[in-house]
Amino acid sequence: MEPAGLAVGVAGGVAGLAGAFTACVECFEYIQLGRKFGQDYGKCLLKLDAEKLRMSRWGVAMGLGPKSSLNPQVSISEEESKLARRLLEQIMDSFKDAERVSERFRKHSITQKSGTEDLVVYDAGSSLDPSYQRLHLTMRELASQRQSRTSLRNKTTWALYEKKRFDNMIADVTVFISKLVELFPATQEHQRALCKAEVSAISEIQDLALLNEIACDDNTMLAAEVKKEIDSHGHNVTDWEASDSAKLWVGDENENAFGVRNRGHTAARFTVSGNAQVHIGNINRG
Fold it and tell me: Is 217 exposed, middle or buried (0-12, 13-18, 19+ CB in 10 A)?
């Protein structure tokens, strides 16, 4: 059993991270993306959402945030506390550096009469492609549930206008969050459970496939849970056409199928013409 003095000191180490953690999460709230992002806007916004959600997941597992009484703080050493604080500060610095570069771009564009069009920013509520909107709102809501809404300070939003600057920033932020996760292996089981709950809340196969595309390369924990969820669904085939003498099969082929759980499959918005043959369903053998 730890001496009382040491236990208080260790708990204080985690508590001392609360302010920096909250400031990091808030950094995601203030950024907007300019119209120069074009067709990349949706995926870039979702990358921000995914990293904010991962940041909130780490915070909950560490015992930070508004529901810390339900998630007791983990025991960490003074050295671990210092390393974690340094990583949190590096995340904030990544946003600040991007903001400074963006401000220089803004001032330069203002001096160019034709450059002001480059300063128009997207509004997620009206500009985001509908195919991205549901996943965006779901991830934001999941992160928001773990965040004290009273903690948000009155800070002016700022915009990133160049995708290459965004790519540099989000790459750095992703690395630093990964290092935070790796720094405290004792919290990873809790994070994995939170991650599983997030994926279950997303549920729609199209959204899971999109999340897998934009966020799972750098997040093995999320990738594993998304794969499990996708594998539990059947095939989902939409907006297609079979014509002439085409042959199409949507389903699974199960060998030695006795006792095998058959997955359901979805085929929607399709047309079949000519001599085309379409089979939708599983084939069980054995």
Answer: exposed
Q: Which residues contact 69 (CB under 8 A, 6 or more apart)?
A: none
Distance, CA of 192 to CA of 224 (rounded, Å): 9
Report which of 84, 95, 96 is spatially closest to residue 58, judged by C-alpha positions.
84
Residues in Cβ contact with 173 at an 8 Å cutoff, skipping those fewer than 6 apart: 51, 91, 94, 95
CA pair distance 173, 179, nearest whole angstrom = 10
Token duo for residue 115? 């450059």
What pTM, to 2 d.p., does this model score? 0.78
In single-letter form, the type of residue at position 71 comes to: N
Q: Measure the CA–CA gap between 37 and 129, rounded to whole angstroms.
A: 13
pLDDT digits (tens, 9 = 90+) for 34-70: 999 999 999 999 999 999 999 999 999 998 877 555 5
Q: Please say whether the beta carbons of 256 and 286 come within 8 A.
A: yes
Dist CA 208 CA 232 (whole Å): 12
> How many other C-beta atoms can be found within 10 angstroms of the C-beta atom of residue 99?
17
Lowest-confidence segment of 93-107, 188-202, 269-283 by average pLDDT: 269-283
